[in-house]
Specification:
By secondary structure, the protein is of the alpha/beta class. The protein has 2 domains: 141 residues, Aspartate Aminotransferase, domain 1 (Alpha-Beta Complex), CATH 3.90.1150.10; 279 residues, Aspartate Aminotransferase, domain 2, CATH 3.40.640. It is built from 14 helices and 16 strands. The strands form 3 sheets. It has a 7-stranded mixed beta sheet, sandwiched between helices. Strands 11, 12, 13, 15 and 16 form a 5-stranded antiparallel beta sheet that branches. The protein is globular, with a radius of gyration of 22 Å. It holds the Pfam family Aminotran_3. Its cofactor is pyridoxal 5'-phosphate. Keywords: Aminotransferase, Pyridoxal phosphate, Pyruvate, Transferase. GO terms for molecular function: pyridoxal phosphate binding; transaminase activity. Belongs to the class-III pyridoxal-phosphate-dependent aminotransferase family.
């Protein structure tokens, strides 16, 4: 990796500027400037079209490349599988699909069945459809409402956005699907914004606010509750003590199916455990996952259910509608589970769950040291190598900094060849949290580089 490339990349940049529609990007600046093209990756670093080496502190920009770049063994596993069998519809099985389902379920006590799809949005849609079909099968269609939480994000389809608690992401895309109902967030740092929130036992109180919504809507109309175990794009929000346990208790009380969205947190991101929810001792009915399942080496997502949920779709075989009448075309691609099997082997053999926990502890300590130095950091939070630092104009009032200033911190880090993230056009007036999610192979030296760049950036922007 010497930062030089054989191809004429200026032509590639022109092609990109002229024809590619980038995600989450305003393209007006490209009329006078060049878009960034990422050319190569190795380990935790990437190189752009100018040969500049960057430390990637966000795992591919969206929390995906968990085991790092350049893993030849994953590429070889995909290649070998594609030659043998690249695709067959998910109405039939495949060798890698069967093998990965068994391997995955072995990491998820209490879960039983894997439904393959090709994206996190689609995986969540499958869970929503299962809940709706169960409502029709068992409750005459009445128990069809699905609750979702303020600040959580579950995907970019209209159905998933109907279940999304980020108003700026949803702006200009309505009207949305009916019978998705929002519940309050559980962000302890901003509990002062919630009427009646206590200083003690906030977690249980926040869960009880969900119960109040259930009672208002009518328990006989609510079929599911969808939550992120750690809220990602809404500000890297960890659940307060006692919250998820109380949420599960409430769901069981009212016969509501609990859906945990692990699209970001799943497959090691939070350290020690394979999934975020496993830190809190709960037993969901659905777990959805995507990004880190194959670390971006192939498209794969999964909607995982309990056997109890699965059995609801085969209890009356004579009924022609009594099965899950759904298909995901690219859920039949064999590259995904082939890559996922090798991805999981790497995590196990290289002890990356343990590394993630240890490096996460180290990084949160370093962020807290930055908090002591820079008054603009109001809160530091996260789990494993999934961390956030919320920037505020005033620590006493917790007034968020202008999001342009938060974006400027990201730009200053980028100028130092360190790519970090920030909550972006999600929560009106509160896009103020710096985000860090490096690959699970991160070392102390990598983290020190991220912290040093952030320190310099904060000084440049805020003094």
């Amino acid at each position: 990796m010497d930062g030089t490339f054989d191809n004429d990349l200026s032509k590639i940049v022109d092609m990109d500027r002229d024809h590619v529609w980038h995600h989450l990007t305003q393209h007006k600046p490209f009329e006078t400037g060049a878009p960034r093209v990422i050319v190569e990756g190795k380990g935790i670093h990437v190189w752009d079209q100018n040969g500049k080496k960057h430390l990637d502190a966000v795992s591919g920009g969206v929390w995906t490349v968990n085991v790092g770049y350049g893993r030849e063994s994953i590429a070889n596993a995909v290649r070998d599988q594609l030659i043998k069998l690249n695709y067959f519809a998910g109405s039939a099985g495949s060798i890698p699909g069967a093998m990965f389902s068994e391997r995955l379920i072995s990491k998820m006590p209490g879960m039983s069945r894997v439904y393959y799809t090709n994206s996190g949005s689609e995986a969540n849609e499958k869970a929503f459809k299962m809940i709706r079909q169960i409502a029709h099968k068992r409750y005459g269609g009445k128990k069809r409402k699905i609750l979702y939480r303020d600040r959580d994000y579950h995907g970019s389809t209209i159905g998933a956005m109907s279940c999304g608690g980020q108003d700026e992401r949803n702006a200009q895309y309505g009207p949305f699907s009916p019978d998705f109902v929002r519940v309050p967030h559980c962000m302890e740092y901003r509990r002062h914004e919630q009427d009646g929130a206590p200083d003690e036992n906030y977690g249980e109180w926040a869960a009880e606010q969900i119960e109040q919504v259930i009672l208002r809507e009518g328990p006989d109309t609510v079929g599911g509750l969808c939550l992120e175990p750690v809220t990602a794009g809404g500000g890297v929000i960890t659940p307060p003590e006692g919250y998820l346990q109380k949420v599960q208790e409430i769901c069981r009380k009212y016969d509501i199916l609990l859906h945990i969205d692990e699209v970001v947190c799943g497959v090691g991101r939070t350290g020690k455990e394979w999934f975020g929810y496993q830190h809190y001792g709960i037993e969901p009915d659905f777990v959805t996952m995507a990004k880190g399942v194959a670390s971006g080496y192939a498209a794969i997502a999964c909607c995982v259910t309990t056997e109890r949920v699965f059995d609801m779709f085969k209890d009356d075989a004579e009924d022609p509608l009594n099965y899950f009448r759904d298909i995901s075309t690219f859920g039949g691609c064999t590259a995904g589970p082939a890559a996922a099997l090798e991805n999981m082997r790497i995590i196990e053999d290289e002890n990356l769950l343990e590394n993630t926990a240890a490096m996460g502890d180290y990084m949160i300590d370093q962020l807290r040291a930055l908090q002591d130095k820079h008054k603009v950091i109001g809160d530091v939070r996260g789990k494993g190598l999934f961390l956030g630092a919320e920037l505020v104009a005033d620590r006493d009032t917790k007034e968020p900094v202008d999001e342009k200033l938060a974006q400027k911190v990201v730009a200053e880090c980028n100028a130092q060849a360190v790519i970090i993230g920030v909550t972006n056009r999600s929560i009106p007036g509160k896009n103020n949290t710096l985000c860090y999610s490096p690959a699970l192979i991160a070392t102390k030296d990598h983290i020190d580089e991220m912290i040093a760049a952030t320190d310099v950036a904060l000084t440049r922007v805020f003094g």
